[in-house]
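In the present case, backbone shapes were mapped to integers, as reproduced here:
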Amino acid sequence: MILNLTSCKNSGEESKISYEDIEVSPKIEASTENNTQESIEEEKQEKVDKISLYESKYEEAGIRKESLELIEDIINTDIENGFSSAQIAVMKDGELVFEDSFGLLNSYDQNGKRLTKGDNVTSDTMYDLASISKMIGVNYPLQKLFSEGKISLDDKVTDYLGDEFVEDTIFIAYEGGEAKDLETIKTWKKNLTIKQLLLHRGGFPASPKYFNPYVDQTKQEYNPEMKNELFSSYDGDEAAKEATIKAINKTPLMYEPGTKTVYSDVDYMILGVIVEKVSGKSLDQYLKDEFAKPLGLTRVTYNPLKNGFNKEDCAATELNGNTRDGYVDFEGIRKYTIWGEVHDETAYYCMGGVSGHAGIFASATDLAKLGNLMIDGTSGGKTYFTKEAIDTFLSSEYSGDNTWGLGWWKQGSQKRERYFGSLCSNNTFGHQGWTGTLLMVDPEERLVIVLLTNKINSPVTDKESNPNKFDGNWYTTAGLGFAPEIIYTGMGTDEDITDTLLEICDKLITEAEGKVKDSYSDDHPARLNLKSKKEVYEKASIRWNK
């Protein structure tokens, strides 16, 4: 069985709107059913207050109250039916016009029992951004360094990692690999550039799993019977990082750089090392000094527990460490609920929580403010990115694919509807993260939408069938794209949109029905998601007297 532990992948195939997807437990005591209902009613009241609080702002921005009410209904009802938690933030024309938070910091105990009482998510809660870290932790520094003339996209990796990046390479007969001999691979690595890494066309395998001692590298599969030729460390310290960089140097390419797009975390791990070498700062220090402090952001960081935060400042992720509820095991693996530590295995075990591909935690509001920098590169009179840098990194010229910039995902010819919805401009861009996170920026509307969830803070549905699919993945909220679709509905108009919003609800019911199989039990998350969507439709119909 293939165990895919990469952060995320995108097929690039055109799809219709789809709102389904694609880290010592806290002391939380269970409450009675009555107490649960009481807490739900209290939470609902808080949501009403939040919508009222921002009403003048989002209405002035042209965003409809009915749309935000429906988004909140979907998230709240999903949570009532088993989903974990979420945060949302919306900026328009440089101003925060809406934000809200939903659910508990940790939603299940390690046995998969639903927790009904505990600390609520607030607007200050930080979520593990997963692969959005690639944009904030690497693209942002590279765009700034590019603006300052300190890097060129055509710089070779060997300029920064040295000759050992080539000379230490070993040969692995990858299944599906195109290289026939070691010398060919070395030639490819010798000429590898920053630009090719940004395009995910560097030739690296998707997931070498440097942290796991037991991997069949020819298949990139977890195999407890086989030694990992590229194993570095699971200690999560500076020595582990050094060992991992050496392992990257050893890693052979699967195909010639520039000829194929394969989403690989290795690309951004290397880019992160390059940022550190050029700037003379670690990625976490660069984030603090060059972005967080100047922008006045206090809820964005790598390694929260090492930077003055408690785990209660964060939303929890996987319930049983990185074991996928016991499916994966090796010496050093975390088995406690991951809370305040990066979920991504390679970032945690190999890079000490600070890596170019994963590791950043942020609140939705602070992430939205960071995203807003991509509108024109400025904030508070300070220039972070030149127009040339933004245009260059968002250009599809280098990829020949209008759904890709340099690292950035683009709406292009409506091929990112799964995340961005179908109503945004074709120039919309952003990224998503495997933990259940979304950042999208529409430069034409000067609109930023952030939706953060911790969908993997839930049991694995069927670890033998798919150890990477958690109960949280089944819910509409985890699909992310429903929120942009609804926000754009009727935006900037005064027309009655309630019928259109009900049509969206009906589509969500149809999608949910399509995922339910006769063999599923009544408490299967697919059935609970369908139940949730029917409840949302009923609530909306009553609210709008339909």
